[in-house]
Write a structure and sequence with these properties.
The protein is of the alpha/beta class. The chain has 14 helices and 18 strands. It folds into two domains: about 230 residues, 3-Layer(aba) Sandwich (Rossmann fold), CATH 3.40.50.10840; about 180 residues, Molybdenum Cofactor Biosythetic Enzyme, Chain A, CATH 3.40.980.
Length: about 425
Amino acid sequence: MAQVLVIGDDLTGSNATGALYARLGLRALTVGALAQVTRYASRVDVLVVNTASRHWPADRAHTAVRAACATAGETPLVVKRVDTTLRGNPGSELDAVLDVLAARTPGARIRALAVPAFPDAGRTTVGGLHLVDGVPLTRTPVARDPFDPVRHSRVAAVLGEQSRRGTAELTLDVVERGPAAVAAALRRNPAEVTVCDATENAHLHTLAAAAARLAAEDGIRWVALDSGPFGAALATELGLRPQGGPPVRVLAVVGSATERTRTQLARTETALGARWTDLDPADPHPGRALAALRTAAAGGATVLGVRVAPAPAAAAGTPSVPSPPDPETAARLLRCLAEVATRAVAELTPGGLYASGGDVAAAVTSALGADGFAIETEVLPLAVAGHLVGGPHDGLPFATKGGLIGGPDAARDCLEHLRAVCTRRALGATMSAP
């Protein structure tokens, strides 16, 4: 059964939202007809249903969403995807989802978090007002939309025109105090729908972490009303993982220990849930690294890797630039990284492999017995992706990047690309099964 049910009101938004879950290593599929919902609900991790109801009357939209939710059956997380500018029928469609869940599980503690912010697209919520590039909705072109003009900038007012549920607002100052403060605020005001402020991706993860805490501690069943990224963050915090087959994993091997690399890898932890094990440059031990990778895999990590631990912090008043390792240490690290990669590929069977640093990439491909590397695309300048050619791992998706290449999101972009490739392969195999 699908782990996540996403109900969207137009095809473009539905597909874009599905892509966010695919980046998490979940197999996502968009369908339209109810017969397709029945057919595929048990064959994917994320089922995205496009009701095409954005321009419909509110009662007709309610009926369509209710039917989609009921037909899909029980899923751990239901997301009502809304337009990034709140056009359409967000209130009535949210009611439809809540109606179905309440009827299915009488007495359950079901609540909704309305988080329409999409910071990467310039959509933010501050003081309950939804903004496009910092401008309230009613002062943007959506206020003059010929099909669905938006008459309110306040999210609660947009929902209130259609929804029967009571709403509360969670302000930005609470969100910025972290998950514990958010969880406490949600406990104090148990409204059926809480509209949450958010201006950056970190806020979405804070809200998701708080919701996951209340789900575990208080037994609350959350419904997400969002434009895409919050629902994906909530799925991650709830620990939802691929079902019905081996997880789609990406293995990463990183030799650089520069501050730039550490910053890039930190982004992969927050954005992708990556799990890293550090290799001690003074005593690199393949067995210890492999054991840590096994633990990460057993915990459900879909991006896991080994990296070289940073040098000890410099003494006060001395430069913090790390000294390069001596040639003997560098060679020992390369051999260890290559051995870890070889053993991890054989044991953990990742769907893709990422290597950062030219020497590391060469050592790893040689250790894996590959003849070469088939280049398919450039993910970003000096970072390419393709697959291994020849040897026992012929066809394995592979990406390489120089250790000093790219901005803070460079490693994330490469790993996201690899994981999307792996997810497409897995989804293709699932769809072709009888």
